[in-house]
Amino acid sequence: MLIALGAIAGYLLGSVSFAVVVSRLMRLPDPRSYGSKNPGATNVLRTGNKVAAILTLGGDALKGFAAVLLALLYLPEAAPYVGVAAFLGHLFPVFHRFQGGKGVATAAGVLFGFDPWLGLATIATFAVIAAFFRYVSLASIVASIFAAFFSWFIKLSGATTLAIAVMAALLIWRHRDNIKRLIAGSESKLGRKKATPPDPSAASQ
C-alpha cells in the first residue's frame, strides 16, 4: 500500500508540466499549440525565450530527481516505482489533459536520483552522440538504451534496472515520429535554422 501511495505521489509530481506552467507565467503561447506541439524545453525555445526554455528544462528534470530522492529518504524500496511513475506523469499529465512531453529531462532527473554516476554517464553518452551526429532525438534514444546498461554495470538493484529499461522503452516509443524522420533523412539537426517562432504576445491557452 505504501509503495502504491508513493507511486501515486510520484505520478502527481511528474504531472506538473513546467513547459505549460512557465509559458503561462511568462505569458507565452501554450507549447502544445505550435511547433512540435510537445510541451518540453526544446519546443518552448521556439518562442525565442531562452530563460523560459531553461526554466522548463530545469523544472522537468528537478521533479524527476525530487520524486526519487524523497522516495529514497522515506521509502527506499519504492524508489524504482516512484521514478517510473514520475516519468509517466510527465508523459501523461493528469493536470494537463494527459498531453505530456517526451520525457527526456524528467528521465535524466530520475537517473540522477537513482545514482549520480548513472546520471553523469547517461548525460555523457547523450552529449557524445549529439556532438557527432547532431540529432537530439537520436542522442536521447541512444542514451536511454545505454542508461539501462549503465545501471546493470554499476550494480544497481534489479528493480531499478528494470525501471530504467521501462522508461527507455517508453521514451523510444514517444520518439517514434522522430525515428521515422531519422530514417527518411528529414529530422532536424542541431544548428539548423528553425521556422519563424510563434509570436510570444499571442494569447496562451
N-to-C SSE string, H for helix and E for strand: HHHHHHHHHH
The level of helicity is 55-70%
- The termini sit apart by 38 Å
Our estimate of the beta-strand percent is under 5%
Number of helices: 10
Secondary structure: number of strands: 0
Give the averaged pLDDT, no decimals: 91
Main sheet characteristics: none
Radius of gyration: 17 Å
* Uncertain residue segments: 200-205
How many domain modules? 1
Shape by Cα distribution: globular
Structural class: mainly alpha
Would you kindly provide a written description of the structure presented here, covering whatever features stand out?
There is one protein chain. This protein is an all-alpha fold. The chain has one domain (2-184). It is 67% helix and 0% strand. It has ten helices and no strands. It is globular.
Entry keywords:
205 residues; disordered C terminus; mainly alpha
What layout of secondary structure does this protein have?
Layout lengths: L1 H13 L3 H8 L15 H5 L4 H25 L4 H13 L12 H11 L1 H18 L2 H18 L4 H17 L1 H9 L21
Helix pairs in contact: 1-4, 1-5, 2-4, 4-5, 4-6, 5-6, 5-9, 6-7, 6-9, 7-8, 8-9
Provide a brief overview of the structure.
67% of the residues lie in helices and 0% in strands. It is an all-alpha fold.
